[in-house]
Write a structure and sequence with these properties.
Largest sheet: 6 strands, antiparallel, barrel
Number of helices: 9
Structural class: alpha/beta
Shape: globular
Number of strands: 17
Radius of gyration: 21 Å
CATH superfamily of the largest domain: HUPs
């Protein structure tokens, strides 16, 4: 097959490249550039040049051509705009989910990928076909599994992707990196928003949304304990970054209209009913909602799953009940649903 391999300079995509190459496919590697230069000058050092250097060394070693594709305009129009809009509405965005749908498997496919049989990446996920329908399936590594971030892919996108490391654990991928003697075999994993790399999410928000002083108000008493720089820097359940004594303090809720952040030192006593929510804007790989009334659900990337009850409201939204409280439940985030490891799709928490 003719494969477009997306590389980041990290170990995962580098090992994936070698696996695809070793399978005998005709591989061309692509590095996606999405940040504007003036933005980087303001936010600080972004490691894209270092990433690109590593990607080039890996491709040279493998004898694969590397091309740089600029998707800066698409990224700003779709991902940055969505992130800012969601923040201003007082909800918690998840740019990583939409980055995959709209950029890696969206804008890239529209601009370049159509010339290839499939797009391959270094994601920890698997694609399976059941009764003619493409689904995501969880990987053997529950900590690294990235089906959460891929749950908004369309069925058409799923039909033309390859995840070469999806059957491996992270430790096995590291072993393969050593076996192939990759130039980046000892490079640490990057942590950060989508392609942000070393840039902190707070700095990204401050650059694009700015600051607006408001009050930190105790939820139970109405007492003003201090000031903040803008409600958009806070999410419900947050403990770090409040900066007050006599704590620990937690964010109970934010009020976008008054720019008020409500805090409490008795968060768990207050929030005993954080076990139900609704979802909308759903994406189901089968084309319709699951018929099961009990499913597994993830509310964030990571190994934690709940067995939840799932009911259809009949208006395109669904009502979810968890077996226990989840203190990090936040409107705007994604709830992703599973049945025996099979990822069925996801929806936005309303």
């Amino acid at each position: 097959m003719k494969i477009a391999m997306l590389v980041s300079g990290g170990v995962d995509s580098s090992v994936a490249l070698r696996l695809v190459k070793n399978q005998g496919h005709d591989v061309t590697a692509f590095y996606l550039k999405i940040w504007l230069e003036d933005e980087l000058a303001y936010l600080g050092e972004c490691p894209w040049q270092e990433d690109l250097d590593y990607a080039q060394k890996v491709c040279d070693q493998a004898g694969v051509e590397l091309k740089v594709v600029s998707l800066q305009q698409a990224y700003h129009e779709k991902i940055v705009a969505y992130t800012i809009k969601t923040i201003k509405e007082g909800r918690t965005p998840n740019p990583d989910v939409l980055c995959n749908t709209m950029i890696k498997f969206g804008a890239f496919y529209d601009e370049v990928g159509k010339e290839y049989d499939a797009i391959a990446t270094g994601h920890y996920a698997q694609v399976v076909k059941r009764d003619g329908i493409f689904y995501l399936h969880q990987t053997p590594d529950p900590i690294k599994d990235q089906t959460y971030f891929l749950s908004q892919l369309t069925p058409a996108q799923l039909s033309r992707v390859m995840f070469p490391i999806g059957e491996y654990k992270k430790s096995e991928v590291r072993e393969l990196a050593t076996l192939y003697d990759l130039p980046n075999k000892n490079r640490k994993d990057s942590q950060g928003l989508c392609f942000l790399g070393k840039i902190k999410f707070r700095d990204f928000v401050k650059h694009h949304v700015g600051t607006n002083p408001g009050q930190l108000v105790e939820y139970e008493t109405g007492k003003v304990w201090g000031e903040h720089e803008g409600f958009w820097f806070y999410t419900v359940g947050q403990r770090q970054g409040i900066g007050l004594s006599h704590g620990p303090w937690y964010v109970v809720k934010t009020d976008p209209e008054t720019n008020t952040v409500f805090i409490s030192s008795h968060y768990k006593e207050l929030e005993k009913t954080r076990d139900t929510f609704s979802i909308g804007h759903c994406n189901w790989f089968a084309g319709s909602a699951p018929h099961q009334t009990t499913l597994k659900v993830k509310l964030r990337h990571g190994p934690q799953e709940y067995t939840c009850s799932f009911s259809n409201n009949g208006d395109g939204t669904f009502f979810i009940t968890l077996p226990e409280d989840d203190q990090g439940l936040a409107a705007g985030q994604f709830a992703v649903f599973y049945d025996n490891g099979l990822c069925l799709g996801s929806g936005v928490i309303l």
